[in-house]
Amino acid sequence: MNAPDAELLHPVVLHHIVNTLQWPGLRAWQQAAIRPLLGGGDALLLAPTAGGKTEAAMFPLLSRMAAGSW
Description:
Helix content: 40-55%
Structural class: mainly alpha
Number of domains: 1
Radius of gyration: 11 Å
Shape: globular
Order of helices and strands: HHH
Distance between the termini: 26 Å
Largest sheet: none
Strand content: under 5%
């Protein structure tokens, strides 16, 4: 995955995005959500059904959980 904001995600999360989900990359708006959500900010995600909103919210949350050993 070659996206600067995606590289902010925890390595374990990135591993599963690439290897388990077999996604070649994140959508641009999913990448844009990473930085504010990792920083503890809020984000409003608008996308069509099955557009990846849940993943856009969960990947930063899972990264924070992994980094903080929650």
